[in-house]
């Protein structure tokens, strides 16, 4: 009798065929839900990537010290004529490459407008759009970089005195004087080649 009770207890603990089938169907529906969720996540990632790609062509703003500058393309006539406020004119671009330069590759550049004149930069000096300066994310402050516009061959040597750019894939932000020297004023942004001056 005791042995018969133990056998009947084991029979009650084993799932029936119907219960096993129901468990299998639940697993199958959960798998389908997982596949649908993964597909929806992939579609969302694609949509976000497309939105970010499209946003790169929209008007940009970048940080300059504690201020923000717009790098929208502007016609040359919209800019103030070049005037040095401190009596110091920006040096003309030096087209001759130096033997002591280290190529840094190429990338997109933008420029800071006159609206940020006087704002503090990362070095503590005030931003002067008429000086040949630039912002770079990682180069040591005070570094000198030759920036060349490959479309027209014009180049200029700038001194890094600020951090940035912090938007998109831009590699350097130039002062208005530096952008003017290499012909980026009209377009607002452009592809440039860069070389670090070692001396």
Helix/strand layout:
Blueprint: H1 2-13, H2 17-55, E1 61-64, E2 67-70, E3 101-111, E4 133-135, E5 144-148, E6 155-162, E7 170-174, H3 176-182, E8 189-197
Parallel strand pairs: 3-7, 4-6
Antiparallel strand pairs: 1-2, 3-8, 4-7, 5-6, 5-8
Description:
By secondary structure, the chain is α+β, with helices and mostly antiparallel strands. It folds into two domains: 2-54; 61-197, Beta Barrel (Barwin-like endoglucanases). 29% of the residues lie in helices and 25% in strands. The chain is built from three helices and eight strands, in the order ααβββββββαβ. The protein has helices at 2-13, 17-55, 176-182; strands at 61-64, 67-70, 101-111, 133-135, 144-148, 155-162, 170-174, 189-197. Strands 3-7-4-6-5-8 form a six-stranded mixed beta barrel. A hairpin with a 2-residue loop joins β1 and β2. The protein is rod-shaped. The termini are far apart.
Overview features:
199 residues; alpha+beta; Barwin-like endoglucanases; 2 domains; six-stranded mixed beta barrel; 29% helix; rod-shaped
Question: Would you kindly provide a brief summary of this structure?
Answer:
The chain has 199 residues and is of the alpha+beta class.
- Count of DSSP-assigned helices: 3
Q: How big a fraction of the residues is strand?
A: 15-25%
> According to CATH, what is the class of the largest domain?
Mainly Beta
> How many E-type strands?
8
Query: What name does the CATH topology of the largest domain carry?
Result: Barwin-like endoglucanases
Oligomer: single chain
Portion of residues within helices? 25-40%
Would you identify the regions where 5 or more consecutive residues have pLDDT less than 50? 70-95
